[in-house]
């Protein structure tokens, strides 16, 4: 959908009480977002179709967004139709990685509250997000497309299997699975979690690994996050499982970017993002058996 037709679609929603002038918001790399003011109230409109190559289902996103609001962690969904979500606007500050690190206690508490609460409010079927399946699926797609790094795929799949074994048995929670700093908002009183594109049942270690890797946690900050989440300092077994899942989360992010290089029409430097995440993955892999 072109920019002009997307704007026309947002302007034409029957939800509005009057004429609106949507203002594009930056930052979305799987959807297009707009700020809309109507009848003295502000809204965020998310526009995006299903993305099968990434397992994104907008029906699942809608169900998770509604459940997350009921759990008290995300803004309300005020209107929905195919490809469109209209959300209550949160008047607050979007976090950068430094903000997440500076507000570590509240960020971890929000993630744990989401893990414990969102699943209680879900209705209908719910997806799973198992990182090792995602990596295998991405590898099949990249291999079939003759991707520029095709020769590396067998090695990456072998490492993924080693990481799966290192993670070991897991508990299941309903995860967000995309804990980038921009998905945290601070309204001055509390934090909010937004954007449930990649929602699904998963190990809590995946979200904790994503939280640490996406926000540049130090070893001390990572240990504090695990201690806050689990209620006690991590032992050697939990630390190893976490490190393996952190490496897997970085591999998945790199391969997500590889697939996006092939399929996405959004103006974003996916090739540079691929290379950055591959470098971070290799560093996490090297540190897996470190101190």
Automatic annotation (TrEMBL):
One GO term in the molecular function aspect is:
kinase activity
Matching entries from InterPro entries are given as: Aminoglycoside_PTrfase, Kinase-like_dom_sf
CDD domains for the chain:
ChoK-like
Q: Which Gene3D superfamilies match?
A: 3.90.1200.10, Phosphorylase Kinase, domain 1 (3.30.200.20)
- Aminoglycoside phosphotransferase domain residues are 24-228
Q: State if Transferase is listed as a keyword.
A: yes
Spell out the Pfam families in the cross-references: APH
Keywords on record:
Kinase, Transferase
- Name used for this protein in its record: Choline kinase family protein
């Amino acid at each position: 959908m072109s920019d002009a037709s997307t704007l026309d679609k947002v302007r034409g929603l029957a939800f509005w009480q009057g004429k609106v002038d949507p203002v594009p918001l930056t930052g979305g790399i799987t959807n297009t977002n707009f700020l809309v003011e109507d009848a003295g109230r502000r809204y965020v409109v998310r526009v995006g179709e299903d993305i099968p190559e990434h397992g994104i289902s907008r029906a699942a996103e809608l169900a998770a967004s509604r459940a997350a609001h009921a759990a008290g962690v995300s803004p309300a969904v005020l209107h929905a139709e195919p490809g469109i979500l209209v959300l209550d606007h949160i008047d607050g500050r979007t976090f950068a990685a430094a903000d997440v690190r500076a507000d570590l206690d509240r960020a971890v508490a929000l993630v744990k509250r989401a893990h414990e609460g969102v699943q209680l409010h879900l209705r209908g079927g719910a997806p799973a997000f198992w990182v090792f399946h995602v990596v295998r699926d991405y590898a099949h797609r990249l291999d079939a497309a003759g991707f520029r790094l095709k020769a590396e795929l067998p090695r990456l799949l072998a490492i993924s299997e080693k990481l799966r074994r290192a993670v070991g048995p897991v508990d299941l929670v309903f995860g967000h699975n995309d804990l980038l700093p921009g998905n945290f908002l601070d309204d001055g009183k509390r934090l909010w979690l937004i954007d449930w594109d990649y929602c699904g049942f998963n190990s809590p270690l995946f979200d904790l690994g994503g939280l640490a890797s996406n926000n540049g946690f130090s070893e001390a900050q990572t240990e504090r996050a695990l201690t806050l989440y689990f209620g006690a300092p991590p032992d050697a077994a939990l630390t190893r499982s976490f490190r393996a899942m952190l490496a897997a989360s970085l591999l998945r992010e790199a391969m997500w970017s590889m697939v996006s290089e092939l399929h996405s029409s959004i103006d974003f430097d996916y090739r540079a993002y691929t290379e950055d995440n591959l470098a971070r993955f290799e560093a996490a892999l090297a540190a897996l058996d470190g101190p």
